[in-house]
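Private note to self, pasted from the team thread so I don't lose it. Backbone tokens:
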């Protein structure tokens, strides 16, 4: 397992092909991360390229892990920008390539985002994940609190509307 590396907007350009392949892998495996199948690699790369603006503006922080075969995982931390919300951030796009699962990489990425958020003065994190997904176990075991579920919140990769579970975590 490699240590997560925080990406700058310039780094993002270098990592975009690997991040696009990771996103396609996740969607093909059924991850509810906002995309439908089939997800063409060029569409995935185009989406990642749009994240450069968010990174440059410090609204989003992205970490990536890789090994000799390429990108293995990523996570994003998105900062709330309104004056009444500057105490919180949301976690999104926690993705681990199928070939890299089962080694604690998801937990390492999540911990990295949590530690960064706390150091940045954020005291509350939120996220949503498809109800019944494997990710729910990860979040619960990492101390996240289930806030509730919203029926028909988002479509799964096949286009079927599914429930999503909301989680939050106080950082202290």
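Design output:
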């Amino acid at each position: 397992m490699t240590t997560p590396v925080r990406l700058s907007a310039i780094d993002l350009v270098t990592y975009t092909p690997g991040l696009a392949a990771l996103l396609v892998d996740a969607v093909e495996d059924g991850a509810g991360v906002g995309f439908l199948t089939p997800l063409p690699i060029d569409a995935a790369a185009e989406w990642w390229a749009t994240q450069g603006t968010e990174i440059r503006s410090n609204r989003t922080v992205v970490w990536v892990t890789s090994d000799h075969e390429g990108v293995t995982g990523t996570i994003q931390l998105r900062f709330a920008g309104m004056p009444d919300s500057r105490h919180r951030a949301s976690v999104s796009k926690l993705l681990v390539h199928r070939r890299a699962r089962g080694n604690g990489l998801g937990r390492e990425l999540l911990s990295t985002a949590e530690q960064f958020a706390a150091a940045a003065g954020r005291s509350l994190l939120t996220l949503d994940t498809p109800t019944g997904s494997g990710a729910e176990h990860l979040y619960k075991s990492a101390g996240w609190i289930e806030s509730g579920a919203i029926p028909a919140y988002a479509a799964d990769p096949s286009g079927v509307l599914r429930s999503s579970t909301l989680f939050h975590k106080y950082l202290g």
